[in-house]
Write a structure and sequence with these properties.
heterotrimer; A alpha/beta (about 325); B alpha/beta (about 140); C alpha/beta (about 675); B: Rossmann fold; four-stranded parallel beta sheet; 5 helices; C: about 675 residues; Rossmann fold; FAD/NAD(P)-binding domain; 4 domains; five-stranded parallel beta sheet; 18 helices; about 25% strand
């Protein structure tokens, strides 16, 4: 997508907005980080739009939309769902945000690129629909789909839930088998499932990156930081705490999680946390009818709703266990 | 897994004040026996049960947790048990997904008139959990020696 | 530091026979914070209660745990005991060691062990108990009844009879509702007007009752005991206090072509009108859509003929604000719109009528003066086909309602019977899915229609009605005989499903009262609290809660009135102090709690908070109205941040119990 940076400059120059939320380079060219820009020179100097703009900017608008003035944000299709969900929860003040929708071909992940035997990568750029990867040892061309991060490989939709203006074309819902991995785990025996999750969750170092990046986890005070909740613990005191943390976290965001995949993207221990959230989404879709959090401004999240004839826990769990 | 014949599971039963707690009282009034290792915590409504409480019970050594509330449609607060039903359905499914034996968690609807059902439910639940044995999976996670 | 007293009751031998009460009190004495642990034969006896009172005073106790029978038995008793000793009654916890221990276990060792654990849990909880004050909120001794049909009238009369002031808000120019349009009533066949109009007059004459006719509820705020309601009095263009109801204007008005809504458009009236002769209040009203004076300033005939000088073309809608202690919804029903049922040719032939239109055609005060004539050519119909369940008991996907409208079987039997009685030469067919006639003397009534009056009841539905050469060709199936029927009918009468009045949904939103998917008001409990809404102080009367016939409506109306009287007879309401309370510092303002609250107890407020660097931040935070909250706790779990907690059953209290039990 061309013209993202140019749009940021145009919006600031014309004074139609006071600030722009976008991305700037981190320590490396591939670890882009969300940033707020207030002037044209700032944008010219450090705004980056590249194949590594995976970070979801919606969460930053909770604070930015309350800071006075108008703020523009570049939102990819998946980010718009988080945005709508947060507007719905009265966290983002919609009227203060100018949403620039950006159509997206999927964002790349350096780990995935390296998994193709590439090392010492110096730059990655789009070239004729493919990716040109330059390394100290020469250049190679990769198919973009082979370089995508987990969240983009299983992209749920290219359809933007909301935008004030759009760069590129409006897209459609996609089916990239995002529930296949959940179904694979469900099909295991309980022993295998237990072993799988113990293997994954025992790596947790309670760095809280998943929580801090999650747009649904944007509470004023997290229950895990609240002395009255009875759950407060900063460190992983024992292995149960990790499980407790991840189960509670997944439950707290259940029916509000838009499956943006940020939790897994940022986990330094590569724990597939999205598989917990997707399990809830899969169950909700199966038990209470298809529901996409953040797809609209008015439906009730399924956990804050009910019908008189919902399945009983006993029936549902048999089903949910992949039987 | 070796089950000690003397071993008795610890069962925590959350009962809503208006139906199931009264049902438990009725089973007492009628002298309908169930094992002494079932311990009841009174909550105003099944919808008061936070998943945190269940996980906390497991963390602290419970072997089984059961929630009893009014039958759907009979909630004193009209809709409480409907919310509880969805919450517990999803939570139990998640626990199962993590490989934790799902027979350790249960929801039963017990009315104030169903003293016999309350006792029968508890007898059955204790039997099920006893057969499963100690809560090793969660205990392993607690890093106990 | 907590100073907790533990009191173990023997309950004679009820507890002491299976539980070693001395061992329990000894064990619990060692728990943290416990300064006193005693046991006694009967804690609930005077001596037992004195023991507790004295101990609270002597040991300056900060919390009390009583190990005894179920709290459902004596919690209130012991709360009073504790309060007498000057301790907050909510600093008490009861460990249920009788119903849930001594009575169900036989093994003394096991029962004793369990009693100790239950005692520990209660001690752990009471450590975290906080003094709670039951709030009081005053009750305004005036009730509002919304809807002036038979339901609203009966409710208002009963409330007034008990000596309380009551206002009726009716959107039509007269009270009376649907019943005024009915001819006869089943199963006794007495005339509807004869039994209704005296009640209407009673309302008008009762000094405790104020009638806001031609008025609507505009806004509702407040809660049980003190609702504040804004009522819009729509402009009648006739001064209500001056008009004598002589009716001269309604004869002289030159605009004669106004469809008469009272007769469902089967005849016409003038632009200024009194709905019917027995209207209450008997005051004329100008239909602004048709009055040429109001439309283009030309005419003024009514003002000229009015001797009382009641006409006021400049009248405007007026807003009235009143306070009420209780509100009764009595918004009633309407037959569904039949225009979607073209298989029955309703919109193509004037001789296909709804049952309510048929009532008007049979009524002595109706458009035909009580003679049954076809609307198309004013001839006597010789063959009449009644079709039941039009729009009732439909599948969920199709048009129509899934529920049974309940009254159609009986009024169709009545219509069929009256036809045959007045015009014995008429052939009357009734097509039905089932005939449902539960009710006192109802089935006898239906059987009379079949057996004595020779009405042809045919099980089966009508497939199609086609108007052809002045006849209505009715195609139907007879399910019992398994054959197709073709009837040349003169009239077809459709028993239309009934649905809640359209004003009910916006009203429910104003009242924060819940509704089902069909827009019927939900009752607080389907069996045990059928006339109360889950929203405290809001009561339900008549068809707004579900389809009902007149006797049932009147019974429910009186039941709702008795609930209102019960509420208004109190000077103030003592609120349950165990209600939800948000921690504003942690609240996200996300509305999750509001979505699951069945009582509408939660509202939001933009509140200023101190931000970093001497800034202030405006944040949306939840507010719980303690007079409305019933303390179910649904919100506490819906709240993602844990800002919402329930007093008396707080997160920490329940966790402490869990910890104590699993220890």
């Amino acid at each position: 997508m061309q013209g993202v940076k140019e749009k940021a400059i145009e919006l600031l120059r014309s004074k139609s907005v006071d600030r722009v939320v976008g991305w700037k380079a981190g320590e490396f060219f591939y670890d882009l980080t969300p940033a707020v820009f207030t002037s044209v020179p700032e944008v010219e100097q450090s705004f980056v739009w590249s194949v590594f703009c995976a970070a979801n900017l919606s969460k930053y608008l909770i604070a930015e939309s309350r800071r006075g003035g108008k703020v523009a944000a570049f939102l990819k299709p998946c980010d718009t769902y988080s945005f709508v969900q947060l507007v719905k929860e009265h966290r983002i003040l919609r009227e203060n945000v100018h949403v620039v929708g950006v159509q997206c071909a999927g964002m790349c992940d350096m780990e995935t690129i390296r998994s193709h035997g590439l090392s010492a990568v110096t730059s990655v750029a789009e070239q004729d629909g493919a990716l040109r990867v330059e390394t100290l040892y020469g250049a190679r061309t990769l198919d973009r789909k082979d370089a995508l991060g987990e969240k983009c490989r299983t992209c749920k939709s290219k359809k933007l839930a909301v935008y004030d203006e759009l760069l590129g074309e409006q897209g459609c819902d996609e089916d990239n088998g995002r529930f296949l991995e959940v179904a694979r785990i469900e099909a295991m025996t309980p022993e295998e499932r237990f072993a799988f999750w113990r293997g994954e969750l025992s790596r947790c170092i309670r760095c809280n990156a998943c929580r801090n990046v999650c747009p649904a986890c944007s509470c004023e005070t997290c229950v895990f930081d609240n002395p009255d909740s009875g759950l407060r613990n900063k460190a992983a005191a024992d292995a149960f705490e990790e499980n407790l943390f991840h189960i509670i976290r997944a439950f707290h965001v259940a029916s509000r999680c838009t499956d943006c995949g940020e939790c897994t993207r940022v986990c330094p221990q590569h724990i597939p946390l999205h598989l917990l959230n997707r399990k809830f989404i899969k169950d909700i879709n199966g038990l209470y009818g298809p529901y996409q959090a953040g797809a609209d401004f008015d439906t009730k999240p399924p956990l804050m709703d009910f019908t008189l004839h919902d399945p009983e826990p006993s029936q549902a769990a048999v089903r949910g266990g992949g039987v | 897994m070796q089950v000690n014949s003397e071993w008795k599971p610890t069962i925590v039963a959350f009962c809503c004040n208006w139906c199931s707690y009264a049902g438990a009282d009725l089973s007492g009034t009628n002298r309908l026996s169930y094992p002494a290792n079932v311990r009841i915590i009174r909550i105003p409504c099944s919808c008061r049960l936070n998943p945190m409480f269940i996980l906390r019970a497991f963390q602290r050594g419970a072997d089984g947790v059961i929630l009893c509330g009014c039958h759907p449609g009979d909630c004193r607060y009209t809709t409480g048990n409907y919310y509880a039903r969805r919450r517990m359905t999803l939570l139990f499914s998640m626990l199962d997904y993590l490989g934790i034996e799902r027979a350790r968690t249960r929801v039963e609807w017990v009315s104030a008139a169903e003293g016999a059902k309350f006792a029968a439910t508890m007898n059955d639940f204790v039997q099920t959990v006893t057969a499963l044995g100690e809560n090793r999976r969660l205990e392993d996670l607690r890093c106990k020696a | 530091m907590q100073r907790i007293g533990v009191f173990v009751c023997w309950c004679g031998t009820n507890i002491a026979a299976t539980v070693d009460v001395q061992a329990v009190s000894d064990a619990l004495a060692k728990e943290p914070g416990v300064v006193l642990s005693a046991n006694y034969q009967y804690m609930c006896s005077q001596t037992g209660q004195d023991l507790i009172e004295t101990a609270i005073r002597e040991h300056a106790l900060t919390g009390v745990v009583i190990c005894s029978c179920s709290p459902r038995m004596h919690e209130q008793t012991f709360r009073k005991t504790v309060a007498r000793a000057g301790l907050n009654p909510y600093l008490l916890e009861i460990a249920n060691i009788r119903e849930q221990c001594s009575w169900i276990h036989k093994d003394r060792a096991q029962a004793t062990e369990k009693a100790i654990i239950l005692g520990r849990a209660a001690i752990a909880k009471v450590q975290l108990n906080t003094p709670l004050q039951a709030g009081q909120s005053p009750v305004t001794k005036r009730a509002l009844v919304i809807g002036g049909g038979i339901a609203g009238i009966q409710t208002a009369l009963d409330i007034a009879e008990a000596g309380f002031a009551v206002d009726i808000v009716e959107k039509q120019p007269t009270i009376g509702g649907k019943m005024t349009q009915l001819d006869k009533t089943f199963p006794t066949l007495d005339c509807a007007a004869c039994i209704l109009t005296p009640k209407m007059v009673d309302c008008a004459q009762n000094e405790k009752i104020r009638i806001f006719s031609y008025s609507e509820v505009e806004a509702v705020s407040g809660f049980v005991g003190s609702f504040r309601v804004t009522i819009r009095k729509k402009a009648r263009y006739v001064r209500e206090d001056v008009c004598t109801g002589c009716g001269l204007c309604t004869e002289k008005c030159p605009q004669k072509k106004v469809p008469n809504a009272f007769n469902l458009g089967l005849d016409t009236r003038r632009a200024i009108y009194i709905p019917f002769a027995q209207a209450v209040p008997k005051v004329a009203v100008i239909d602004a859509d048709y009055c040429s004076m109001l439309k283009n300033g030309k005419c003024g005939v009514c003002a000229k003929v009015c001797a009382a000088g009641a006409i006021d073309y400049t009248q405007k809608d007026e807003l009235v604000e009143c306070e009420y202690g209780a509100i009764v919804a009595a918004t009633g029903y309407n037959p569904i719109d039949l225009s979607g049922y073209d298989e029955f040719a309703y919109s193509r032939s004037p001789d296909v009528v709804s049952s309510l239109e048929f009532e008007r055609l049979m009524n002595a005060a109706g458009p035909t003066g009580g003679t049954l004539l076809r609307p198309s050519d004013k001839t006597h119909p010789k063959t009449i086909v009644f079709v039941q369940c039009v729009g009732s008991r439909c599948s969920a996907e199709g048009k129509g309602k899934t529920y049974c409208s309940k009254i159609c079987c009986m009024y169709t039997a009545k219509h069929a019977m009256l036809c045959r009685e007045k015009y014995p030469d008429t052939d009357v067919y009734v097509f039905y899915i089932d005939v449902r006639t539960p009710g006192k003397n109802f089935d006898e009534f239906y059987r009379r229609a079949v057996e004595e009056y020779g009405v042809h009841y045919i099980k089966g539905m009508v497939g199609k009605v086609s108007p052809e050469g002045g006849k209505l060709k009715v195609q139907a199936s007879d399910l019992l005989d398994g054959r197709q029927l073709h009837i040349d009918a003169d009239m077809v009468v459709l028993a239309a499903a009934i649905e809640p009045d359209k004003s009910a949904r916006p009203l429910a939103t104003m009242l924060t009262a819940s509704m089902d998917t069909n827009d019927f008001f939900t009752e607080a409990h389907p069996k045990l609290r059928p006339v109360e809404s889950p929203t405290a102080g809001v009561f339900l009367s008549g068809c707004c809660q579900g389809p009902k016939d007149i006797p049932e409506t009147v019974a429910q109306a009186s039941a709702a009135a008795s609930k209102v009287i019960g509420l208004l007879s109190k000077d103030s309401i003592v609120c349950n102090p165990c209600v939800a309370q948000p921690d504003e510092l942690m609240c996200n303002g996300c509305s999750s709690c509001e979505k699951v609250c069945p009582y509408g107890a939660i509202t939001y407020l933009d509140k200023e908070f101190r931000g970093p660097n001497r800034t202030t931040l405006l944040r949306r935070v939840a507010q719980v109205n303690p007079a409305v909250c019933q303390g179910c706790g649904a919100c506490t779990v819906a709240c993602p941040s844990g800002a919402m907690d329930l007093k008396g059953f707080s997160n920490r209290q329940i966790m402490a119990e869990v910890d104590a039990i699993c220890r």
